[in-house]
Amino acid sequence: MISSLSASENQANYKSDLMKAAEKIVRISDEAQIRAFANSLIQRHSVL
Predict the structure, then answer these.
(1) What's the whole-model pTM score?
(2) Cα–Cα distance between 40 and 31 in angstroms, integer?
(3) Contact assessment for residue 41 and residue 1, using Cβ atoms and an 8 Å cutoff
(4) Average pLDDT, integer, range 7-28
């Protein structure tokens, strides 16, 4: 999801990936959950 949000608009799957990321965010209802989810993605992404 992080890569989807930071990708260039010129990439072929940009809109599709952005829509998938938005759908995941919509499922998370409150701000605290969104922050926790984003932090976990950042941690996983930085470990790889």
Answers:
(1) 0.41
(2) 14
(3) yes
(4) 76
| Residues of the domain holding 8 | 2-47
Q: Are 21 and 1 spatial neighbours (Cβ–Cβ below 8 Å)?
A: yes
* pLDDT range class, residue 27, cuts 50, 70, 90: confident
Q: How many domains does the chain have?
A: 1
- Mean per-residue pLDDT, 27-38: 81
d(CA 9, CA 28): 25
Q: Which two tokens stand for residue 21?
A: 């990321």
Contact 37, 28 (CB under 8 A): yes
